[in-house]
Amino acid sequence: MSEAAIRITGMNKYYGRFQVLRDINLDVGSGERIVICGPSGSGKSTLIRCINRLEEHQQGRIDVLGTELNDDIGNIDHIRRDVGMVFQHFNLFPHLTVLENCTLAPTLARKIPAEEAEATAMTYLERVRIPEQASKFPGQLSGGQQQRVAIARALCMKPKILLFDEPTSALDPEMIKEVLDVMVELASDGMTMLCVTHEMGFARQVADRVIFMDKGEIVEQGRPAELFDNPKNERTRTFLSQVLSH
Amino acid sequence: MTAVSDMNTPRQTLNVGFRPDGLATRLRRRYFRTPANALISLLGMAALLYLAYHALDWAVLKAVWSSPDGTSAVCRDIAGACWAVIQQRWRIIIFGLFPYDEQWRSMLACVVMVVTIVLSCLPWFWKPLRLSILWCAGFIIFYVLMRGGLFGMRAVMPADWGGLTLTVFLYAAGVLIGMPMAIAMALLRRSEMPLVSRMTGALIDGVRSLPLVTILFTAALIFPFVLPDWLQGDKIWRVIIGFALFFAAYQAEIIRSGIQSIPVGQEEAAKALGLSYWQRTGRIMLPQAFRNALPPTINQLVITFKETSLIVIIGFFDILASGNAAYGTGEWSFAYFEVYIFVALVYFVFVFSLSRYGAYLERRMRFGQH
Ligand SMILES: Nc1ncnc2c1ncn2[C@@H]1O[C@H](COP(=O)(O)OP(=O)(O)OP(=O)(O)O)[C@@H](O)[C@H]1O
Ligand SMILES: [Mg+2]
């Protein structure tokens, strides 16, 4: 974990006057698995969306895979191809089949030949255990299946970093496990992952580091065992007691 | 970020084990469930039959279908419809002022245009390359046939084109030029550069606040004074551009509303995959926007078809104006009703096919196909 995949230094972000992120400093090593948690509105989504520039930061510096994020569109598109993202609401393209969802970006953005892209897509659909749904449309799948397709779609770009924004929050309890299983498998393959989630079991199992955010700041970070069993900060303690009491 | 699009919810529409009842059973259930229900049904049916009989009596039983001597004398003192006027004058209605001996060209050109339109409705042609080839071929054949001056065909100026052929051509050309304009205007209006979006907005609002007649008038009669000669082109092209612009201003707003109803997550997901602006627009946003905006788009296409009749204002004889000419010669002037019914029937065939096609597309897209 020598080389940093992501390096954020002194980053501030505002929505108008309102400061969403305050003085964020974060280095993510290549292959590192990070879980971000914190109360609603604390800026977790905003933070990871800054990493693939779905949101722009105003101050400080963000380097992803050795490239600084600025207004250079070419750079941004390039980085986005190497940084996959999985959303809370899946955001599959409803007018394309599962297979087309998975092959669209590789053929267009990476210029991979169609047959090769399809073969890759089928491999990843098998890995997320839904190859038999390839010719269906997203609207015909369950939430858990859709989220697994979304993961496969991101993987088809062969990204170096994967961002997850609450991937299981929109799912029924019985579907959460099937998605988490896929994510655990990915983690054991050495993918660099940043995952916003409140699944503490998942965090304990795979995370190298847990980051606790509140009011736009990184309040505390550490190994999952340390942070969960022995939180130093008062705000962390309050949050954890609320989450765990559920 | 809390809105879950209904696209994302699973939906299953299978009627397993559903067996349709016989016709008699269905009729009994629907129309004769109670005595009062049966009475109303019977009265309704009697009224319908009465009206239908009278219409049939006029239009078929007592009608005169042809005039062997070519005069309107056969229609004197009859109680039914005088379809002889159509038999005698249909060429004017369909071909307008096109020279009599050359009307086979106009007929062929009209068929070519209609076939082109029908073919481009088939999903097989929905590839940019195939569509472009189809339409280029369609327009070139049409133009050569109509304009002539090649292959030993007599030249016929667009001012002499007319009837159904002119209506279909004006419509196809107007929509074909107008649709890309509409897409461009919708995208420019959504531009992040305030100047660009404001100016497009002003153009759209400007065009929409003018009556079509004014625009056609300007294109046909005023532009020749303001434009340099080499930019003027034939009057028919200026009229088509004006017509296309008018269509585009409305269609642009329809497309924009279609884009706006796409959940934000769609564009974000496309961005996150590294797709460029044009890839996102062409593959994710526009296909979904057209899907969302299909009913108003069909609506606009129907309205536009009927609006072609306004070009009579600037001296073109579309099918409606040609219809007026067909009975307006004194001899047949009593038969205007029959002529209008015939013209209405032609409009109906086009517009009704269009709306059935729209319904077919909607059904097809419900299952997410493209
Ligand atoms: N587009 C926006 N404009 C203005 N304020 C915003 C915008 N998006 C988010 N915010 C605000 O920024 C803050 C952080 O939002 P963010 O979505 O990052 O929180 P979060 O930690 O992901 O919360 P949750 O757990 O509910 O998803 C919130 O107070 C939110 O109201
Ligand atoms: Mg969030």
Automatic annotation (TrEMBL), chain A:
<keyword id="KW-0067">ATP-binding</keyword>
<protein>
    <submittedName>
        <fullName>Amino acid ABC transporter ATP-binding protein</fullName>
    </submittedName>
</protein>
<dbReference type="Pfam" id="PF00005">
    <property type="entry name" value="ABC_tran"/>
</dbReference>
<dbReference type="InterPro" id="IPR017871">
    <property type="entry name" value="ABC_transporter-like_CS"/>
</dbReference>
<dbReference type="GO" id="GO:0005524">
    <property type="term" value="F:ATP binding"/>
</dbReference>
<comment type="similarity">
    <text>Belongs to the ABC transporter superfamily.</text>
</comment>
<dbReference type="InterPro" id="IPR050086">
    <property type="entry name" value="MetN_ABC_transporter-like"/>
</dbReference>
<dbReference type="InterPro" id="IPR003439">
    <property type="entry name" value="ABC_transporter-like_ATP-bd"/>
</dbReference>
<dbReference type="InterPro" id="IPR027417">
    <property type="entry name" value="P-loop_NTPase"/>
</dbReference>
<keyword id="KW-0813">Transport</keyword>
<feature type="domain" description="ABC transporter">
    <location>
        <begin position="6"/>
        <end position="240"/>
    </location>
</feature>
<dbReference type="InterPro" id="IPR030679">
    <property type="entry name" value="ABC_ATPase_HisP-typ"/>
</dbReference>
<dbReference type="InterPro" id="IPR003593">
    <property type="entry name" value="AAA+_ATPase"/>
</dbReference>
<keyword id="KW-0547">Nucleotide-binding</keyword>
<keyword id="KW-0614">Plasmid</keyword>
TrEMBL record, chain B:
<dbReference type="InterPro" id="IPR043429">
    <property type="entry name" value="ArtM/GltK/GlnP/TcyL/YhdX-like"/>
</dbReference>
<feature type="transmembrane region" description="Helical">
    <location>
        <begin position="168"/>
        <end position="188"/>
    </location>
</feature>
<comment type="similarity">
    <text>Belongs to the binding-protein-dependent transport system permease family. HisMQ subfamily.</text>
</comment>
<dbReference type="Pfam" id="PF00528">
    <property type="entry name" value="BPD_transp_1"/>
</dbReference>
<dbReference type="InterPro" id="IPR035906">
    <property type="entry name" value="MetI-like_sf"/>
</dbReference>
<keyword id="KW-0813">Transport</keyword>
<protein>
    <submittedName>
        <fullName>Amino acid ABC transporter permease</fullName>
    </submittedName>
</protein>
<dbReference type="InterPro" id="IPR000515">
    <property type="entry name" value="MetI-like"/>
</dbReference>
<dbReference type="GO" id="GO:0043190">
    <property type="term" value="C:ATP-binding cassette (ABC) transporter complex"/>
</dbReference>
<feature type="transmembrane region" description="Helical">
    <location>
        <begin position="236"/>
        <end position="252"/>
    </location>
</feature>
<dbReference type="InterPro" id="IPR010065">
    <property type="entry name" value="AA_ABC_transptr_permease_3TM"/>
</dbReference>
<keyword id="KW-0614">Plasmid</keyword>
<feature type="transmembrane region" description="Helical">
    <location>
        <begin position="308"/>
        <end position="327"/>
    </location>
</feature>
<feature type="transmembrane region" description="Helical">
    <location>
        <begin position="339"/>
        <end position="359"/>
    </location>
</feature>
<keyword id="KW-0472">Membrane</keyword>
<feature type="transmembrane region" description="Helical">
    <location>
        <begin position="106"/>
        <end position="126"/>
    </location>
</feature>
<feature type="transmembrane region" description="Helical">
    <location>
        <begin position="209"/>
        <end position="230"/>
    </location>
</feature>
<keyword id="KW-1003">Cell membrane</keyword>
<feature type="transmembrane region" description="Helical">
    <location>
        <begin position="36"/>
        <end position="56"/>
    </location>
</feature>
<dbReference type="GO" id="GO:0006865">
    <property type="term" value="P:amino acid transport"/>
</dbReference>
<keyword id="KW-0812">Transmembrane</keyword>
<feature type="transmembrane region" description="Helical">
    <location>
        <begin position="133"/>
        <end position="156"/>
    </location>
</feature>
